Structure prediction request, 157 residues.
Amino acid sequence: MNEQLAFLREGQFLLLEKLAPDTPANWGVMNAQQMTEHVRDFFNISSEKVKMELLTPQEHLPKYIEFLYSDKAFRENTKAPESILGKEGLPLRQPDLATAKAKLNDSVNDFIDYFKNDPEIKTMHPVFGPLNFEQWVRLHHKHVMHHLRQFGLVERR
Prediction:
């Protein structure tokens, strides 16, 4: 987990330096800034700046947690529930991509700070259910890698 956490803190931002507003996506409907803001949204969910209800039936959660601990990546074109992302992605909320990247960095730091005193507390992911710090780190890492592949910043599997 320490490597994944270090990647979330620093490594992703080194790769995101190469992301330009006009970088084309290999799949999906989001542009570079929408993706950056979307990733930030999930860091805000993990630190409960945004609260979400569970959308997954309880009986399916063990399957999702199993995926979390596997080496499997999210498939290309994995779709977030429409209630979270909309059909065409969410409207832009930041003035530009540079600001979106800076806000993402702030949200990563807020996430780490949120769990600093109690890494075992759980916060709700709308699909994966209640997750503790270590589980969120795993999920954030998978999620970030998925979107870095989407924009060609890391190799596709």
Notes: The mean pLDDT is 94.
